[in-house]
Amino acid sequence: MNAEVLPADRQPVIIAARRTAVRRANGTLKDLRAHQLLAPVLGQLLSECRLSPAAVSDVMIGNAVGGGGNVARLALLEAGLPVSVPGLTLDRQCGSGLDAIALASRLVAAGGNPVYLAGGVESISTAPLRAYRNDDGEPAFFARAQFVPLSYGDPDMGVAAENVAAHGSVSRERQDALALQSHQRALAAAAAGQFAGEIIPLETPSGTVRADDGPRRGLNAAVLARFPAAFVPGGTVTAGNSCFDADAASAVVITSLQRARELGVADGFLVLATDTAGVEPGLLGLGAAFAAERLLAAQRMSAASVDLVEFNEAFASQTLACLDRLGIDPDRVNRDGGALALGHAYGASGAVLVTRLLAQARSAGNDGALALAMISSAGGMGTAALLRYKAITDRAATSQR
């Protein structure tokens, strides 16, 4: 398959990707609101690509539990972009960050050689309290929004993870083993400096935050086996094989291949295709598999042809069920650990997947390598993106910014 499936002026390419550290909610990032998490990421991307802020066509950001007010616009102005740059905030729950990247790539494919900043952000720590208004006008507070009509059952995420475990015959032992692998890989990657090139430091009232805080040393199979079922009595999904809530921001720069060459960019990810699928809400964790299945079929590719895979490990059960359906060996996925160890920052997580993949592709330097990002979303949805790593120009080439 020819990597440049579109003319160069319409072929979307991701030329840079960055993220903050992913930190436990109500922890060291609790004093930063969503726009304050995101603004430094946007600023770093502009600096790294030596882009004039005025050259940005739009900023598209996914967010799931924020207070509204268009966090994309708020963050871009906080980052010092001019008032001429608009902003768009979108909500597809957990998939929001990846869907923002997908939307930007499709707009690049429409033409015009634009430059977009796209990604996601979540500050669960500072998310506003939410309430319905009772008949008497008094607030009735609720923990989460309704995802689907009650006629569908509107299951909580943990209950849906149990449904997926039963549906896919995913055992407790496999779930615990995946969780342990995720922590071990994340610890090893951090020790080897694998995350250093993708994380930007954040200044907080308590100091500079430079690293993820989720991976647990001393975790072993015996410890994981002691966790009780967390959502359904006698179930297999526990706090040990589920992700934790986190705060983070992540974003990428997307432009056309032609514009990337003009900028003198050395390498990047061609966005070959993206897809979002809907599934039964009670089995919402399977959404990523359905999206990836359809995406790969449309590209006449098999999962075996993909070199790098990042899957958002919200729950071990849904991760394994999706990988089983796609025929992907879990050992090939999330080679530096996933959300089971690093945490799940809802609207940011899909963009974190792409940031991780670009860092891995650049580290390997395998021109032409295929990468697949997948995430399932509340309400019964999933999004997948197929990317190809490609050398673009010599960095010494004359750039036209």
Summarize the structure.
This protein is 31% helix and 22% strand. It has 401 residues and is of the alpha+beta class.
Layout of helices and strands:
Blueprint: E1 12-19, E2 23-24, H1 34-49, E3 58-62, H2 71-78, E4 87-90, H3 96-109, E5 115-122, E6 130-133, E7 139-142, H4 157-167, H5 172-191, E8 202-204, E9 207-209, H6 221-225, E10 246-256, H7 257-262, E11 267-278, H8 287-298, E12 308-311, H9 316-326, H10 339-342, H11 349-364, E13 370-377, E14 381-391
Parallel strand pairs: 3-4, 3-5, 12-13
Antiparallel strand pairs: 1-10, 1-11, 2-10, 5-10, 6-7, 8-9, 11-14, 13-14
Helix pairs in contact: 1-2, 3-11, 4-9, 8-9
Supply database-style keywords.
ten-stranded mixed sheet; 14 strands; alpha+beta; globular; two-stranded antiparallel ribbon; disordered C terminus; 401 residues; 11 helices; single chain
Largest sheet: 10 strands, mixed
Measured distance between first and last alpha carbons: 31 Å
Proportion of residues in helical segments: 25-40%
- How many helices? The count is 11
β-sheet strand percentage: 15-25%
Mean pLDDT value: 94
Any low-confidence stretches, pLDDT <50, length ≥5?
396-401
Q: Could you spell the SSE succession in H and E letters?
A: EEHEHEHEEEHHEEHEHEHEHHHEE
Radius of gyration: 20 Å
The total beta strand count reads 14
Give the class from helix and strand content and strand pairing.
Answer: alpha+beta
- Envelope shape: globular
